[in-house]
């Protein structure tokens, strides 16, 4: 009970401070894959140091949305967008906003663990290296800090120079999180990060997300509603390219406003 | 419950199924054997003919009217000179083209058109490339019958093969690796240089070295260019004229004296050894790069 009160107060604070704590503000975003209208009039504010979960059935546009936030969606041929997304007050679709700059601030963890076919060390050092850091001492420090941050340091510290492909799936995914932390991002986007993992690895990643939100804002797409309920502060429910409902996770799962949200979270479809 | 599958029939059908399997297995084995036998016969004939003729003198002598004095020095050195031009020119241009088409170019009608034509060029007869080289390099650019002109012609000949091989190797690199790299703010070039190329290099090199082997064994375009078959001195630079091993062998096989057939066989053995050497370099490099991961 007390916890809810604290949370509400925190949210009120967030609202009062307004613009300051909003990381991402999406206004009237539309997106088309060729003729297919995949995202329709999305309005969504994402707040600092929170975990925002995006749930919805397959094909509802949740992955498309998260990939729009770091403009990875542009790799798909034939994508058009309208509307705007501001990241910390700047429109990411602006011609002057270099996409490499945006992605330095916004890290991404993918559905399938995708380490590079390099050593564990080189995987984590990849980001800093492409941004021009060559000093071995600094790199060593970044690698250790990132691996500790992703709660995998103890498991790999004795074999940093072995191939990352020798790790288990769950370890690979945490390595990918470490690799993402190494560029010292502000936001971490996670696109169904546990869907390819076993329950124990999933649990580890979920615990990690809780730890990470102290320092990062996290947006996580998941098809697992229990996961959203367990780890997120806010949840957005997507259906057919629209945001049906977006509110505090506790509220969305206990007392949803929309009938469709209720049907979905109670397992009546999807 | 009513069964839709009659187990009796399944059992009856079993033996004919297995028989067909074994017959086909035998057929495929014979197909493999056919190629092997032809190769063994060929190698046997060449090696028996070459025995006694293949020695240090053969490698050290220039061609001669007397078969016992004839050697392949001019051809061997000429073929190496040719590679000095063909390898860098075709690799740089070929891999560059493949990178552009796979990583940078937008997929539209124009790139589709280029793509189709590159694949078609790979099937153009080599003599046509010879005529092209004669017109452009030998005559227009006035390079004469030089190593440079021949090297550029051969580069054109093997380019389509290298481009297609490199494209396939680049395409085989999983997209999720590129996404991971872009997702950290890497530029396209950084992603290509640090992720795509290291993963694609074994495939690129295998395809390229096989293409270069083709260039070493190719004769027709050089005949058109007018490269001499009888040369008693070594080139001193890329603008000198030269000869290559297959031209030399072609010349020997057309001599009336029976002994020249032995000289030709010895030349073929040397050519084969060079080809096997090149292919082992390909395998060595491939294994080395794979071990890094």
From TrEMBL, chain A:
Pfam families: ABC_tran (PF00005). SMART domains: AAA. Its EC number is 3.6.3.27. It is a peripheral membrane protein. The lineage of its organism: Bacteria, Bacillati, Bacillota, Bacilli, Bacillales. Keywords: ATP-binding, Cell membrane, Hydrolase, Membrane, Nucleotide-binding, Phosphate transport, Translocase, Transport. It is found in: Cell inner membrane. One of its GO terms (biological process) is phosphate ion transmembrane transport. It is an enzyme of class 3 (hydrolase). One of its GO terms (molecular function) is phosphate transmembrane transporter activity. Part of the ABC transporter complex PstSACB involved in phosphate import. Responsible for energy coupling to the transport system. Residues 24-265 form the ABC transporter domain. One of its GO terms (cellular component) is plasma membrane. The keyword GTP-binding does not apply. Its main location: membrane. This is Phosphate import ATP-binding protein PstB 3. PROSITE patterns: ABC_TRANSPORTER_1 (PS00211), ABC_TRANSPORTER_2 (PS50893). NCBIfam families: 3a0107s01c2. InterPro entries: AAA+_ATPase, ABC_transporter-like_ATP-bd, ABC_transporter-like_CS, P-loop_NTPase, PstB-like.
UniProtKB/TrEMBL annotation, chain B:
The keyword Cell division does not apply. Residues 76-281 form the ABC transmembrane type-1 domain. Keywords: Cell membrane, Membrane, Transmembrane, Transmembrane helix, Transport. It holds the Pfam family BPD_transp_1. The chain crosses the membrane at residues 23-47, 80-101, 121-141, 147-170, 191-212, 263-285. One of its GO terms (molecular function) is phosphate transmembrane transporter activity. It is a multi-pass membrane protein. One of its GO terms (biological process) is phosphate ion transmembrane transport. It is found in: Cell membrane. InterPro entries: MetI-like, MetI-like_sf, Phosphate_PstA. GO terms for cellular component: plasma membrane. PANTHER family: PHOSPHATE TRANSPORT SYSTEM PERMEASE PROTEIN PSTA, PHOSPHATE TRANSPORT SYSTEM PERMEASE PROTEIN PSTA-RELATED. Belongs to the binding-protein-dependent transport system permease family. CysTW subfamily. This is Phosphate transport system permease protein PstA. It comes from Anoxybacillus thermarum.
